[in-house]
Write a structure and sequence with these properties.
The protein has three helices and eight strands, in the order H-E-H-E-E-E-E-E-E-H-E. The protein has about 130 residues and is of the alpha+beta class. The strands form two sheets. Strands 4, 5, 6, 7 and 8 form a five-stranded antiparallel sheet that branches. Strands 1-3-2 form a three-stranded antiparallel sheet, with helices on one face. Strand 6 and strand 7 form a beta hairpin. Part of the 30S ribosomal subunit. Contacts proteins S5 and S12. One of the primary rRNA binding proteins, it binds directly to 16S rRNA central domain where it helps coordinate assembly of the platform of the 30S subunit. Keywords: Ribonucleoprotein, Ribosomal protein, RNA-binding, rRNA-binding.
């Protein structure tokens, strides 16, 4: 697999479109950090980091739906930086997703964080994805 982050985002995107309640994906430290950000920002209901029978890490994510309208909290996931074309942004040029309604997940020297936190800490980095 050449782009495991894109695979992770695609699994979540497909589960959202199919109205699944839970989605499983292979785990890594970067995917765990992305999952924690999605939870902190209110895009997912819960998550759990486990290991399968062979000891490989697995991430289980409970997707969040509105109780009455049954619409999902995640409207879109878009991979920005990819192996073929890396995208970097300085703290001043950090992208705003949907004029501040969405988030950009950024990999910085201080860890993986949202675009707003990167602006506060005045650090730039690789723009991994947009979530809205």
């Amino acid at each position: 697999m050449t782009d495991p982050i894109a695979d992770f985002l695609t699994r979540v995107r497909n589960a959202v479109k199919a109205n699944h309640k839970v989605v499983e994906a292979p785990g890594s430290k970067m995917k765990q950090a992305i999952t924690k950000i999605l939870f902190e920002q209110g895009y997912i209901l819960a998550y759990k980091f486990e290991a399968d029978s062979k000891g490989h890490p697995i991430i289980k994510i409970a997707l969040k739906y509105h109780p009455e309208t049954k619409t999902n909290a995640i409207k879109g996931l878009k991979r920005v930086s990819r192996p073929g074309l890396r995208r970097y942004a300085s703290a001043a040029d950090m992208p705003r997703v949907l004029n501040g309604l969405g988030i950009a997940i950024v990999s910085t020297s201080k860890g993986i964080m949202t675009d707003k936190k990167a602006r506060q800490e005045n650090v730039g980095g690789e723009v991994l994805c947009y979530v809205y």
